[in-house]
Please model this.
Amino acid sequence: MSFLIEVNNKNIGARSGETILDVMKREGINVPTLCYIKDRFPSGSCRMCVVENTKTGRLVTACSTPVDEGMKIQTHSPRVIESRKTIVELLLSNHPDDCLYCVRNKNCELQDLSEELQVRERRIKGEKNKIHIDRSGASLVRDPDKCILCGRCVRICEEVMGVACIDFIDRGSKSFIGTAFDKSINTSSCVNCGQCIMVCPTGALSEKSHFTELISMLNNPEKTVVVQYAPSISVSLAEEFNMPPGIDINNVLNGALRKVGFKYVFDTTFAADLTIMEEAAELIDRVKNGGKLPMITSCCPGWVKFAEEFYPDMLPNLSTCKSPQQMLGAVIKSHWAEEKGAKPEDIYSVSIMPCTAKKFEAQREEMTSMGISDVDAVLTTRELGQLIRMYGIDINQIAPETNDSPLGFRSSAGKLFGATGGVMEAAIRTAYHMLTGEELVRFRIEPLRGMKGCKEASIDVNGLNLKVAVVNGLANARILLDIVKRGEKELHFIEVMACPGGCINGGGQHIGASEEAVMARMKALYDIDDKETVKVSHKNPEIIKLYESFLGKPLGRKSHKLLHTDYTKRDVLL
Amino acid sequence: MEKNKTTGEVMETRVREILDRYPEGRTENLIPVLQDVQDVDGYLSEESVVEVSRHLNMPASKIYGVATFYNQFRFAPLGKYHIQVCCGTACHVLGAATVLDEIQKNIRVKSGETTKDGLFSLEVVACIGACGLAPVISINGNFHAKVTGGSIKEILDNYRNQG
Model:
């Protein structure tokens, strides 16, 4: 039902069921929010979005108040502004105020609100928070002093990721966000996805930085510093430099990385192709020889830790393939090092990932060889932006360059890894070829594309009806896996990505990106796939060569040693 | 203690007995469950929270969040002498804050905690209904009336000497 409401003395249309905030957004009226998360049930706890209902004379929260016919609202009356300002002043009263030293300086919602509401003096003095910083995690750093208790991290962790590792502890002025029994994050059920960082309005949550070590390695003449970057980096980095979302700057990125001082620039997408060769072969092997089905992808380290904690009984379903990052890391420090005549210990291998969980993955014991990590340091998209700025590189003036070869060429199938459904699509293309000797007529598998949380498709492969599903957002994975466990759905292959939308929306990406921006990144990946000619991993000439000259065949002895691993149950407080 | 069983195992069976009285997955029973567990064990141990979490199908972090919200739950076993400091209105007006401060300094633990030697545990309570005796503290149910910052040491030392 539609009706009129009066907003700032002007009649505007509204529909029943909408909140005041929904209507304001449509009308282009900015009402500030803190605890509000788009598309999630409003909590109305921060009171930042108060507006004045002039009919009742009360202040109401725009995010959680439904519109009523004939309602009269003032969104920026003196009383409203005064209330919002007081809220910010109260939030600042126990805040550390060390903006200049903060990782979120100039990209902080509290700073923005304070500026917007013209807070110019410390009117309310409170006792400062003094809670220790938790640096125990491999991926995340928690600084509860900077937390303003908006609760967005708590809700994302529970509602979107299905992990619920953190909650409000204690109450009143002593409240803080922490894990069960206030344990350090490294012993908790945290899967390191970093989605909490993405929603944190302040610097209370950030990624663990490998910056200092990296810079010292870049200046160490005895080290060969090599870098790889994930499929989604080239289509999301531009936003770090205020360019519109969805621009592919792959070759500019190569140039920038060389300018920073990386000696060799590889593309993780090459290893994505390698993963597909192994994973498709593994799927066929499982289907033909009665292996454990459904097979589930294992390239997402957030998902892998989630499975180890919450679904240990399903670990045999996980593909034994390492992730592309770890495959390339392993190949660099073995085959490539040998070809170059370099010692593995003299190579410092860096990867640029859209992901915080990759930092955790790189330091897993399974990902080392004779005590040497396959990947030494992982930088997020954000950190790469910082690095490029720190080195004074003007991204607009960089001449495009190509990757180093070998380990640089990629198919467009590998590039799809960056979006949810992409691993599945790439795997199906290659599995189809491995089974039939022919290529798919249509490479695009439309039902597996897009932002939907759970997608399914069935593909006819020479009479075999291959049933597959793709889930993103671990809460969706939970739903599907429980259905599979109850035996209510027969599937051959499931792709799981922890983050909603996949790596293009990973926990290491640009903070503050809209859903439209994420979709633009996705479209950029699809466009690459449409445009380019090598659309399948098995036709990547460098992959073919690597198998001919070194690996032998997929699932072979060398592959098994270098490219595969297994996982074990993890005991944490769930 | 039951024969041939470790403390942990005895505790687990006790928690199981409590949980059996409540239907699985019904989170609305969380607080009564926690109260029952604490009645039996004297506190909420990590192990018991894990058991409760499994039974009610509720993340441990949520249970810890709820339990820390309420003053009544504790996460360390009670000491041999359990000190309750009344911070009700009358006691507050007559200096309960100073008393609490002095006790915390003396036994070097905060409210809700237990000393390492297990001798004392400390709890702040709202009102124990002895306002005429304010500020009042209760140690294992024995009331100490009109305590002051200065008299704390003597009271606690008396208990220490009893061992």
